[in-house]
Amino acid sequence: MAVAKVASGQSRAQAARQLLCATSTVVSAVQRFQKSGREGLSDGRAQNGQRKVDERFRRTLCRVLEGTPQQSGWRRTTWTRELLVREVERRGRVRVSPATMGRALASVGAQRRRPRPVVRCPWPERRRRRRLWQLKCRVAFARPDEPVLFEDEMDVHLNPKIGPDWTLPGQRREVVTPGNNQKRFVAGALDARTARVTWVRGEKKTSALFIDLVRAVDAAYPRAKRLHFILDNAATHSSKKTQKALEALGARLVLHFLPPYCPEGNRIERLWWDVHANVTRNHRCKKMEALMTEVDAYLDARNTQKSASPLLRVASARRAA
Question: Does domain 125-164+178-320 have CATH number 3.40.800.20?
Answer without folding.
Answer: no
